[in-house]
Amino acid sequence: MKLQAYTHLAFITFVLVACSEYYSENDFYSVKKYDAHMHIRTSHDAIPDQAEADRFLMINVSVAHSDSSLRAQEQFTLNQLAAHPNRIRYITAFSMEEWDSADWEEHTINHLKASFENGALGIKIWKNVGMVEKDSTGNFIMIDDLRFDRVIQFVIDQNKTVLGHLGEPRNCWLPLEQMTVNNDREYFKTHPEFHMYLHPECPSYEEQINARDRFLARHPEMRFVGAHLGSLEYDVDSLAKRLDRFPNMAVDMSERICHLQYQSNTNRERVRNFMIKYQDRLIYGSDLGMQPTSDPDQARARLHKR
Ligand SMILES: [Zn+2]
């Protein structure tokens, strides 16, 4: 009798836990969600309206293409913030154009200060650092360059976050036909300028990752989010090692969920255990958005589908 009662109690506990701890597809509209990696470059309402319908809070991310592009992106973001204050947050970026001038650090800090006053949650560092930008002596500027220190310290002192898209997926250093996922194959087919297999004069995959790790080691108090699974998308064990070594590091999964799926094809349990163990360090992001020339209905449909 006693045993039966315990069994019964255990069953009730199981049912309660099962109901309260796990979401299902049916909960989609009742759960608040974040999309932490978006690029909305228009003042149109289509994307915020879809986010409202799907119950997403979005983080719009600026990318350091050029000075003029940065200013335009920031203005679109400020327009969106004013129109949808409960739907949008943003992350600013900074230009590398004046790197060789003596006041680059001060100029950059002033720009970041203004963005933080406008509500930016942090800064994005893009892959142009490590892959495109060179100093006056012709060397690639890597993220562990000491010249970033003052700027990064300012970000830390302001209690802001660094989002780093540093390096690329390991596939980027392989020929198209050897890449593991179609997503990378299609991207590098249309962006040969970033397909590092075609540019052996540029730093290697390992050099990108090592520079990033040295950068993290030098700023242990920096809150860092590695965009795109921190460019360690090919192996959850390698990523786990970094998450263990750097407690203030998290990663977003934008554009790299296919790599988790790819690994789970051969070892589902390994990927599942990784995602359970590091669930608080894995951030959802779609990497979608909208341009001034985009069709609003298509942009909405694409976002909802993803
Ligand atoms: Zn992006």
Give a structural overview.
- By secondary structure, this protein is of the alpha/beta class.
- The chain has a single domain, classed as TIM Barrel.
- The chain is built from 13 helices and nine strands.
- Strands 8-7-6-5-4-3-2-1-9 form a nine-stranded parallel beta sheet.
- Mean pLDDT is 94; it is low at 1-18.
- Zinc ion binds next to strand 1.
- State the CATH architecture: Alpha-Beta Barrel
CATH first level: Alpha Beta
**Can you tell me the CATH superfamily?**
Metal-dependent hydrolases
Q: What small molecules does this complex bind? A: zinc ion
Sketch the major β-sheet: 9 strands, parallel
Q: On the 0-100 scale, what is the average pLDDT?
A: 94
* Gyration radius, rounded: 21 Å
Alpha-carbon distance between the two ends: 52 Å
Number of helices: 13
Which sequence of SSEs, written as H and E, runs from N to C?
HEHEHEHEHHEHHEHHEHHEEH
Give me some keywords for this one.
13 helices, 306 residues, 13% strand, 9 strands, 46% helix, globular, TIM Barrel, binds zinc ion
Condensed summary:
With about 300 residues, this protein is α/β, with parallel strands linked by helices. The chain has a single domain (about 35-305), classed as TIM Barrel.
Helix and strand topology:
Layout lengths: L1 H20 L11 E8 L5 H9 L1 E6 L5 H17 L4 E6 L10 H14 L4 E4 L2 H4 L17 H9 L3 E4 L17 H9 L14 H14 L4 E4 H4 L5 H10 L3 E4 L4 H10 L1 H10 L4 E2 L5 E2 L5 H10 L1
Parallel strand pairs: 1-2, 1-9, 2-3, 3-4, 4-5, 5-6, 6-7, 7-8
Helix pairs in contact: 2-13, 4-6, 11-12
Bound molecules: zinc ion (ZN).
